Amino acid sequence: MPTWQEQPPLPATWQRCDNRILPLWWERLCAQAGEQSAALYAAGLFTEDRRRPIAQWFNPAFNAALLVAPETSPEWPVQRFGIFYAPPDTGVVRIHSAPHEWNPRQPRKSPTEKEAFLAAIVEAERFLQVEMDFV
Predict the structure, then answer these.
(1) CA 53: distance to chain centroid?
(2) pLDDT of 3-44, one tens digit each?
(3) SS (H, E, C) the chain
(4) How many other C-beta atoms lie within 10 A of the C-beta of residue 54?
């Protein structure tokens, strides 16, 4: 792979923690949009810790986080992974990126769920690299 495509390691302050969705997401979203709106946001992603797979990074020094998770309702014909950012200390922002979609009705057709998830992770890690230049 050419040098320009190699991704530098993530800044040490960002820790990967995929076991459960951080309470920070729900708290921030409620503060930003209210509890009722927060419950509906991203097909209920933050009200129930049930949708997998997820990838999540946390930066305790800045009280910031980044999340890759399914953002579409399970019954939709095309599923999509979203990238969500909780900037230092306040708010939640959806990162606009390339669509990381797959069709569950055609599980072997590319992009598969795994391919879409891995592509979203690569994009999220790129975001962290750039974001650290500004904080």
Answers:
(1) 10
(2) 445 555 565 689 999 988 999 999 999 999 999 999 988 888
(3) CCHHHCCCCCCCCCEECCCCCCHHHHHHHHHHHCHHHHHHHHHHCCCCCCCCCCEEEEECCCCEEEEEEECCCCCCCCEEEEEEEECCCCCCEEEEEEEEEECCCCCCCCCCHHHHHHHHHHHHHHHHHHHHCCC
(4) 18
Residue with tokens 């979609």: 101
Which of 77, 92, 110 lies closest to 22, judged by CA? Answer: 92
What's this model's pTM, rounded to 2 decimal places?
A: 0.85
Radius of gyration, alpha carbons of the chain: 15
State pLDDT tens for residues 49-93. 677 899 999 999 999 999 999 998 888 899 999 999 999 989 999
* Nearest Cα to Cα of residue 68 among 50, 90, 53, 49: 53
pLDDT at position 76, please? 87
Contact status, residue 95 vs residue 69, Cβ threshold 8 Å? no
Tokens 């014909």 — which residue?
Answer: 77
